Amino acid sequence: MTWRKSSHSGNSGGQCVEVRGGLDAVRDSKNGDVLEFRGPALVAFLRALERRAG
């Protein structure tokens, strides 16, 4: 599957977030750590991010 860089990531490099496929996985391009999601786990992850940002 192809990885895509988030539109919120800068062009200066080093701090990019990339998504794979239909958001079934995200990774930090700096160190390559990958989070993969199954079923409702993606929804729970996004809600947790919203709570932290808000």
Looking across the biggest beta sheet, what order are the strands in?
Answer: 1-2-3-4
Approximate shape: globular
Helix/strand/pairing category: alpha+beta
Note the quaternary state here: single chain
Quick one: biggest sheet? 4 strands, antiparallel
| Unreliable segments of 5+ consecutive residues | none
Rounded mean pLDDT is 78
Quick overview:
Helices cover 24% and strands 26% of the residues.
Write the layout of secondary structure elements.
Blueprint: E1 3-5, E2 17-20, E3 25-28, E4 34-36, H1 41-53
Antiparallel strand pairs: 1-2, 2-3, 3-4
Structural commentary:
24% of the residues lie in helices and 26% in strands. The protein is α+β, with helices and mostly antiparallel strands. It has a 4-stranded antiparallel sheet with strand order 1-2-3-4, with no helix packed on it. A hairpin with a 4-residue loop joins strand 2 and strand 3 (25-28). The longest helix is centred in the last third of the chain and has 13 residues, at 41-53. The model has no long low-confidence stretch (mean pLDDT 78).
Keywords:
single chain; DUF397 domain-containing protein; 4-stranded antiparallel beta sheet; alpha+beta; 1 helix; globular; 54 residues; DUF397
